[in-house]
Amino acid sequence: MAVLTTWTWVCLAGGAVLCIGLTSSIFRRRKRLSVPRNVVVVHHFFGRGWTVPSKSPFPMKLETFLRMTKTPYMNDHSGQMSKKGKTPWIEFNDIQVADSQFCIDFIKKKRGMDLNTALSVEQRSIARAFLKLIEENFYWTMCIELFCNKENIPLLKRSAPLKGPGFWLYYWFVRRAIQSATWGHGIGRHSVEEVWCIAQSDIEALSNFLGDKKYFMGDDPSEIDCSLFGMLTFLLVSMQGTRYEAFTKEHHPNLVSYFQRMKVTYWPDWDTLTTSSDKFTNDHGKLYFTENIPE
Amino acid sequence: MDMETIKSFVTTHPREICITAVVGVALIAVIRRRRKREKKVYPPNTIVHHQMGRGPYAPSLTPFAVKLETYLRMAKVPFLNEHDSVTNKSSKNKVTWIECNGEEVADSEFCIQYVNNKFNVDLDKGFSDEDRAAALAIQRMVDEHLYWAVALQRWVYDPKDGINVSKNMNFSWTLAPLVRRMIAKQSYAQGVGRHTEEEVHHVMHEDLKALSMFIGNKKFLFGDRVCQADSSVFGMLSQLYWQSYGGYGEKAIHEYPNLCAYCDRMKAEYWPDWDDCITHGWTRKATK
After folding, report:
1. pLDDT digits over A193-212, tens only?
2. C-alpha closest to that of B239 among B259, B215, B214
3. Which of A122, A180, A209 faces B130 most closely, judged by CB atoms?
4. DSSP strand E in A154-291: where?
5. A222: phi > 0 → left, psi -120 to 50 → alpha, else beta; which?
6. Chain B residues contacting A, CB < 8 Å?
7. pTM of the full structure
8. Inter-chain touch A211–B137, beta carbons under 8 Å
9. Where are any strands of DSSP class E within chain A?
10. Do A189 and B93 lie within an 8 Å CB cutoff?
């Protein structure tokens, strides 16, 4: 009898989870936007952040690209995940594309435009190498520092979506996901201090290459600026108060000035897109650059 | 003792059998852990490069061992190879690691930094800050991104195209599916493994194209003098160029003739004993 009772509870709990999942997915589907043709719909899984327009660098990268190229787009904050389990993802005239770089390549092809036309062949290849440094290496060092260094727990508590006991469930869940991903990646096999050394090398390389240039590759913006800006948003705003941010401000201030320049140029409405601001407005479904929608 | 007796014993003593099995496994694990590794005595101030063993057509089956050994040759530091890391893994479970004067370091990049500090080596000396930064970015692209496309191609896609991975790698046929699952799982966690095969080919080509455009007509990455990142690039390309066993990776690199020429140049410069460092398709033992 005792064994049966335990199994009954397990089945009830499983059933409850299933119901909640189904209900929320049905509810999310009801919020589906009606989208005009030739408008990119950007799906943000995390929605707007407390102090940043997006908590993840990849939606920041994608949205910065759309703003840089004045591509007509709208944001969908209903929280749907792509089939690849990657976010952000886009929809365009019923075609779905996941992975921020694939999204950018798709948009470039559809609109017949390329931000890298002014770059030489060698510069394009360096830009690709830095893209990989930023997204395949540096990004993970920041995830590890935030979620695997216990000193950053007070910082996380301030911006976490759940407070009190719920925070610990959130922390445990996200930490496990990062540990699992970074173990597979390889970088998670190092200690937090070793990862810190790797991060410093990456920050130094970004700063040294940028130098006193206006944009990463020169006087004009190019595609790599979108990715770098997204990552610096994470580093300098979401990770404010960590040693990563302090190190960058103290030893590589050119990255901070670059971040400010990009923010003012491409995100003049920053304050209306951060939930901590009085001026915040929910832009779920709002159309941007409608003047560029082809007839 | 007939089958009936055995069957009856198993069905009437399940608890005892389970406990015995668990205790047995635990005992084996404890004994293996406590058994001290045979500590060999190595010459002082010599890098001992622990690696998996020689490959059929390149000095190792893993790009990181080729990278690290190429770097040690470039840096001209005293070193010797121990082909034991399959059973003698590093503390981080990586199969490419070094030790020197009893100190262990795992991960090819950390190993290189260790050697740089210990032996006062700087292969990038004289390059501008901007070039050094670009070289680091190239190393990151090759080791943290291109690697996954190469691994997926070798372990997940090539077998589907009929390439016999176990025979080519001289692994037992039971191991190949385990390695394939591990690579699929790791690359999914990393991100590249979430793409379709076609998309992985696309990103492989994007990386190869970037390398090809960057090297151009130059002898090495940054001109006539080799730099630290050349070891990473050569390590990774060696797998595509010499150890793709006719798979997609081989076809991909041949679309970039300057990358093939680069591989041949690096081999001639730093591996004059190449033929002694490969098993020629597992037909003979590598003498070095």
Report:
1. 999 999 999 999 999 999 99
2. B259
3. A209
4. 287-288
5. beta
6. 92-94, 106-107, 109-110, 129-130, 132-134, 136-138, 140-141, 144-145, 185-191, 194-195, 199, 206-207, 209-214, 216
7. 0.85
8. no
9. 40-43, 73-76, 89-92, 95-98, 287-288
10. yes
3-state secondary structure A182-217: HHHHCHHHCCHHHHHHHHHHHHHHHHHHHCCCCCCC
Average pLDDT, chain A: 89
* Residue in B109, B130, B186 closest to A208 by CB: B130
Start-to-end C-alpha separation, chain B: 53
3-class DSSP state of A49:
coil
Who contacts B217 (Cβ-Cβ below 8 Å, separation ≥6)? Answer: B258
Residues from A contacting B (CB-CB < 8 Å) are 84-86, 98-99, 102, 121-122, 124-126, 128-133, 136-137, 180-187, 189-190, 194, 198, 201-202, 204-206, 208-209, 211
A–B CB contacts, 8 A cutoff, strictly below:
111
Say whether pLDDT at B40 is over 80.
Answer: no
Closest residue of chain B to A217, computed from CA coordinates:
B130
| Residue, of A246 and B3, whose pLDDT is higher | A246
A183 is written with which tokens?
């173990």
* A180-195 pLDDT, tens digit each: 999 989 999 999 999 9
Q: Which residues contact A219 (CB under 8 A, 6 or more apart)?
A: A213
| Contact predicate A152/A146, CB 8 Å | yes
- Name which of A151-155, A248-252, B259-263 the model is least confident about: A151-155
The predicted pLDDT at position A230 comes to: 97
pLDDT value for A33: 63
Asked whether the beta carbons of A153 and A171 are under 8 A apart, the reply is yes
Residue of A nearest to B189 (CA): A181
Smallest Cα–Cα separation from B132: which of B228, B269, B241?
B228
Residue among B140, B185, B213 whose CB faces A125 most closely: B213
Q: What percent of chain A has pLDDT over 90?
A: 69
Reported confidence tier of residue A30, pLDDT bands at 50, 70, 90: very low
CA A256 to chain centre: 18
